[in-house]
Design a protein that fits this description.
Layout lengths: L1 H21 L5 H26 L3 H33 L1
Protein name: Reductive dehalogenase membrane anchor
Keywords: Membrane, Transmembrane, Transmembrane helix
Length: 90
Amino acid sequence: MFFVGMLITAVVAAFVIWAMKKGIKFTWYEWLLGALTILFALMTIQHYTGSLAEYQVTAAKLGGLMFGSITLVLLAVTVQFVWRHNKAVR
């Protein structure tokens, strides 16, 4: 898990640097939704791999589907908030 944390930190840092260069602004609730999205993505990966490690294929598929759906919805909402917020500012 240590290397997963390092990878996520590097990706988030690269994203923040890219957004700063592009002039994209974030509000506090957009950061919160982004953090929840990352959290649910990690929960999806952990549940899927953990269930497969215990040879529970059906639980892995259904849990991955449920947590993955929540992750995708949160991602879509977050992207829409950021896009509309920055569209209104310009």
